């Protein structure tokens, strides 16, 4: 293996080792906070004294209102770089360190209402380069430093209301694109345009209400885009009103001068500013203490005025001449007065009037004056009207919206709405009326009908049959007990039906049969109950295939337990949201939700669902059979679940929010998986999980479940994976190292093993067929056949084994080699450079060496055809080791005495196969030192001219070529 490969694998092992000890990322379950839609964190009213540290970096919106945070430090927000909205309303923040927002480059909305800031300092908002909305309402701000808003170049809305500012300097200097400026209820007594800016601004809304202005000086046209100016309760008696040029306010569309305390002359001066060159269309003149008629006359001279509010002025009678100059009005609001009478011709001059609001007055009947208008919207709510006549709305065919709520009406005649053919919305609530067929033949275009809190006890068959266009019907808060068949006949377009807070105790499949288009049905706070979960013959919602949302919570108002039939929801194939909380349900049949495959939100909180014995169902196991693959939100808070099994949670593959607050959990190995899942899962937000309490075993009762150590219950799969991976990497390294450096060692060991097995199998029954096996390279075949073979076979009579002549055809080569070596008394290795480089020659000498080691006999004869220096044998270092322990014959040095060479070879062949260490007859040349003669004894080989003895003990030879 190359070195870089070894380094890479070593780094891989190190990475795996370190990675196994990395702390997991913050889970989806936050302590004391709730996550919505994966990006919104709500930590409302949780008594945080400092900014929480466990908020995930992916969050884009944080609400921390209602806590006790006093300081924002520059480290609080450094790990939340993606924030778009931060709400810190109602804390105790008095200090914001410089640099707190330096990483909040994306923040667009910052809310700091109801805190304790007393000064806006330089650097406080550094980093908020994309901030668009800043709310500082209800602090104690007295001063604004010159460069406080230096980085807020994109600010659009600034709210400084209810503080203690005395002037407006240093506000607009660095906010050139500010469009809305709220400064109500400060201590500003003078308004000078130069305090805000010396050049044109982009302000659209300016609120100076509740400031008791003494001076209003506009000396330059800095408000070319201003549309709304609010001076409500902000003009003090004796105000100096200086507008050098009325065109400076020519863009103002809406003006509020309600509640001012000024002389008639002062108010007239303000209003006349907008009379000539202004585009004023909306004027609020509420809560005026005196000279109201004069102000109305002045106001109605504004030619473009179309919306006029005259609320809360104590008006008791509307005279015919009171509004005669307001001929251009489209919307007139006379609400919250004390009107008891309206002259019949009071609105005669208001030919363009479209909307008339007379709510919160003292009218006892519908004024005749309204019948002479062409209005489309009429609000008569909160009066004392107790009777409606057949002519009260005669000829009002253009009327589209009618509010009659909160009047002491008792009964409706069937002719009341006879001319309201275009009526779209009718609000008729908080009375004590009887319908008396009022909707059997009138109002064909009605789309919204509210009959809330009218003490209705019964609905007649076909009572709504004329309402073919009705889409929204509310019967909330009545006394209905039973819905008869045909009650909703004719409501083929109805999409929303509200029956909350009645006394309905039974519903049948015929009740809603006409409501084919219904999408939302509210049956909360009724008395619907069933004795068992057994299927019923006629499921009530069988025809409501388009229903999307069903409210059926709070059905039982006693402590009696109830259940719902297993086919109760049959027909609701498109149901997405289901509310079934607070019903005292003790058991949910596993087939209950088989009929709602598209269910997305399920509320089952505040029931008596519990762990059913194992022979039935456990915990939430009823959800296993429902195939609720679309369920995203599940509320099962305040039940009595104790164990949550893995298959239940895994079956809810789309779940993003789980509320199990208020249950009592078993804190043993039964809940080990759930405990781990709550902490580590990144998909499902488990609300309030850090407050889950143990109910069992007794020694852990009352402790927080997430603080319990469940490690003894679970197999550490991460550690097992780490060990397995590490072992695999180490094995890969070992195999790579062995393949690169010890490949031939393994090959040699393999063949030695084969030779060993062969020898063990055949040594007792093997006979020598040859005197010697000649191991040579084919390139040396000329010498073997020309020199060696004639001498040894022809002259000396030895029988030799040659591979090209004596190997058995068809037999494996290694088997032929092994048979030849073990079938010969000796092995003659004819060594040359070609021999050393030959793979098969290498294997032949390996087997011969093993025989030498195995039998401890002198069976190996080395014949060198050429001189090979020791340093050139280094790559074949096992051959070099062999030469250091074994004598050999050299043909290259036998030129002068060839006969001696052949004689020594004959003697070597005649040497008996005695154990190593006995007397050796073979004489030869030793490669070391060039010594030509030697003697031998039992100690070893003594070389003439040398002072050392070469040992002849056994050795084990490896030869890697």
TrEMBL record:
Belongs to the Toll-like receptor family. One of its GO terms (cellular component) is plasma membrane. Pfam families: LRR_8, TIR. The chain crosses the membrane at residues 741-758. Keywords: Glycoprotein, Immunity, Inflammatory response, Innate immunity, Leucine-rich repeat, Membrane, Receptor, Repeat, Signal, Transmembrane, Transmembrane helix. This is TIR domain-containing protein. The lineage of its organism: Eukaryota, Metazoa, Chordata, Craniata, Vertebrata. Residues 768-909 form the TIR domain. It is found in: Membrane. It comes from Gadus morhua (Atlantic cod). It is a single-pass type I membrane protein. GO terms for molecular function: signaling receptor activity. Residues 1-27 form the signal peptide. GO terms for biological process: inflammatory response; innate immune response; signal transduction.
